[in-house]
Amino acid sequence: MTADRDNAGREETSRPVLSVQGLTIQVATPEGPKPVVQDLSFDLRRGETLCLAGESGSGKSMTALAIMGLLPQPMARIASGSIRLADGSELAGRGERDFRDIRANRISMIFQEPMTSLNPVMTIGRQLTEVLLEHRACTPAEAPSRALDLLRDVRITDAETRLKQYPHELSGGMRQRVMIAIALACNPEILIADEPTTALDVTVQAEVLELIRVLQREHGTTVLMITHDMGVVAEMADRVIVLRHGRQEETAPVRNLFAAPQTEYSQELLDAVPRLGQAPARPAPERSRDVVDVAELCVRFPMRGGLLNRVTAQVHAVEGVSFRISPGETLALVGESGCGKSTIGRALLGLVPWQGSIRIDGQQTAGLSPKGLKPIRRDIQMVFQDPGASLDARMTVGHQVAEPLVIHGLASGSELWDRVEMLFRRVGLTPDQMDRYPHEFSGGQRQRICIARALALGPKVIVADESVSALDVSVQAQVLDLLRELQEEEGLAYLFISHDMAVIDQVADRVAVMNLGQIVETGSRDQVLRDPAHGYTRRLLSAVPIPDPEHTRPPVLPREGEVGSPVWPLGQGPARLPMAEIAPGHWVAQGAPLKVA
Amino acid sequence: MSDASIPVKSDPSRGGRGSVLVRLLRRPRSAFALIVILTMVGAAVLAPWIMPYNPNNQMFDGLSLEGAPLPPSSEFWLGTDLLGRDLFSRLILGTQTSLIIGVLANGIAVLLGATVGITAGYFGGWIGGILMRFTDLMMAFPALLLAIVLAAIFKPSLLIVALVIAMVNWVQMARVIYTETRSLAQREFIDVQRAMGASTFRILGRHILPHLVYSIIVFGTLGISTTVLLEATLSYLGVGVQPPTPSWGNIIFENQTYFANAPWLVFFPGIAIVLLALSFNLLGDALRDTLDPRLKGRH
């Protein structure tokens, strides 16, 4: 990585491969044109990685789309400014036909969601050869072998088989590799990567970032990376442009930016980034009683197939999980996507059928009817990941916060509205916002509304399922502060479900790491995050990007054994892993829950 | 669903019904649609007083000396039909029949279709399976044939005609609502409601239905035009509205053989049907946009 930076330094004098001058992009709104990018200028130097960093609405993606000639027509347009390639050709104002030669040949782009970027009804091989032939990069006879070379280039295992497979048969990381292979098919000078790893698990993210770095070194490609994640910036960038509301806040080499940010906003942005291992110590809550007591929880989903659509297999989403949470304590559930962590939260709220035992504040909920469950629901509430999706778009937010009180018959008339007002104040909103609809609020405000709604019944436990993952870092920090404050004042217990190790480091008292439906390691935050004992935990931690350019992350630890699957034929199931206590309260599973072949 | 009523707090930003009407009138297209519909409703209600002639009177001077119908003139504004009856009077009385059929038949179809769609979509499982297979069965049946059979079994009357039309028209509505409800039921905000312990009735009434209102309005208004046309077809086949009661449909079909010589006999009722259908469609579109809180103030 250091070699890259030296290279970039040496070639600084050469002509930029892309030069953007005074770029202004306008979007049509009912109130007239509104600029989303204003007077943006930068040069992209050969072989470097330039990061456009910023929060949502900063115009970073719009900039990328403008360079690719992909601005959504007719709402957005380049109002002024120029975008020039190294040979002096101007891109701004070009027609669709001219752009076709530029795309793939000279500039390529990869997007956030590899599944939606790939055509689901075409094999990987056909999608690759299509690009090659479309741009006349080779003859039809050569195409299959070129496609194979490209897949090998992006380090996909079993490349011959992959060519015949469809996108849904590949994992997320593999799909993003295919996207990169397609993007690099015609050897472009510039690769634009728009949040390429945001939708991926942290270990896969580390692998994909590493791949981009290697390919960049091999092909001499210049990378324009768009990201909101300062950890990714620190790991990838040579230079950074910080954008805010479409304006260029600061442009600096990555080390300078992290060491001494010049503008107040960059400083704020960097301060808000949660850093793994730097969270302050939390006082240990006294473990008087358990407000949540889960024992031997199993959630299995049937998979149908074969003759007469019978149940032929089961997804063992959660397999024999047990944990306890006491009042005022936060237990964090960590794991990669598909490990069953969200399913546990949904089981706690009775949203999925489950087996085992769940006690909320001493009351057993197994086998209760919806009616019998209703009083227990007052004690446990949930805050979901996407506040936009968990609010009803057609109901005022005031009514939505009032709903739990009405459903449980706890208040009516003026008392109801007094309580709703209080809840709004409690989460840092003003009562005059009660009559508005969800779409009139920002993401952070919406999440506050969801928290107010969850608090309405005065619960003892809140399940926070990725509750801050969709928020910008600065907003994330505010919402985490709010959650912490509520916990201190009301003695709330949290089950905090997240994939983000740095966030968990901030909020958790205890951590449980999950893999394939089972807990592989559990203990206090310091035990699990500072002194991980299980291979899976170590691997997860090794993949977390550190927001510090001086820090060179060691390569991600290799996976132990093969990737397991939670799908088992009927009547079979994974072996329960025996847990051993290696230190007081620090339990580690013996072995990995792998499928025995 | 008694627990479903949250007391409405005074809300200056939203206003009541009046503001919806004002917003509709502000848009030229919906204002036009409203005026057409109100005129037709007015004509239907006031028919006995505004008809210039008795619509069933076969007037001696309503035919030419050769026995041909008369073209529009100052005496007979829209001309006369084959039997020498005043077309304008018959058209006004026909408005009554067509509007009643259009609103009643379509109302029943919407109600039935939406109920089946929501039930099947939200509950799924075997309830949904049975309901939707029945809907598919109805869809596979030729609608006109079914209507003829039903109308032949029962003694034709306005109510029966409306019911028969509703019976064949609810299936499309059920399909659309079913699909939408299915995707709504899997959305996160419905999970939130279930996690809060909201009753099924409450979820359906307060969180699913408001999201469906827009499809219901659009499909409901689109259905009005098909309904009026289906009534015309049935009347033509002799199983719809029985003569001498006029409806727009049976006026067209009574006179279509004479189309080449007396085009006004088909033209004017045709215009009336098109205007009604168009107005309801325009109104439906406008209502959908006006009622959506996310689009408020954009037009």
UniProtKB/TrEMBL annotation, chain A:
Gene Ontology terms for molecular function: ATP binding; ATP hydrolysis activity
Record flagged with keyword Ion transport: no
Topology versus the membrane: Peripheral membrane protein
InterPro entries named among the record's database cross-references: AAA+_ATPase, ABC_transp_ATP-bind, ABC_transporter-like_ATP-bd, ABC_transporter-like_CS, Oligopep_ABC_C, P-loop_NTPase
Any Pfam family the entry gives: oligo_HPY
GO BP annotations, alphabetical order: peptide transport; transmembrane transport
Tree of life domain: Bacteria
Ranges where the ABC transporter domain occurs: 18-270, 303-541
Compartment annotation: Cell inner membrane
Keywords: ATP-binding, Nucleotide-binding, Transport
A GO CC term attached to the entry: plasma membrane
Family from the record: Belongs to the ABC transporter superfamily.
Protein name from the UniProt record: Peptide/nickel transport system ATP-binding protein
Organism, scientific name: Rhodovulum adriaticum
Automatic annotation (TrEMBL), chain B:
Record protein name field: Peptide/nickel transport system permease protein
Domain of life: Bacteria
GO biological process, one term: protein transport
Subcellular location: Cell membrane
Bilayer topology: Multi-pass membrane protein
Keywords in alphabetical order: Cell membrane, Membrane, Peptide transport, Protein transport, Transmembrane, Transmembrane helix, Transport
GO cellular component term of the entry, any: plasma membrane
Membrane-spanning segments: 31-51, 99-125, 212-238, 258-284
Primary site of residence: membrane
Entry's family note: Belongs to the binding-protein-dependent transport system permease family.
Domain ABC transmembrane type-1 intervals: 95-284
Cited Pfam families: BPD_transp_1 (PF00528), OppC_N (PF12911)
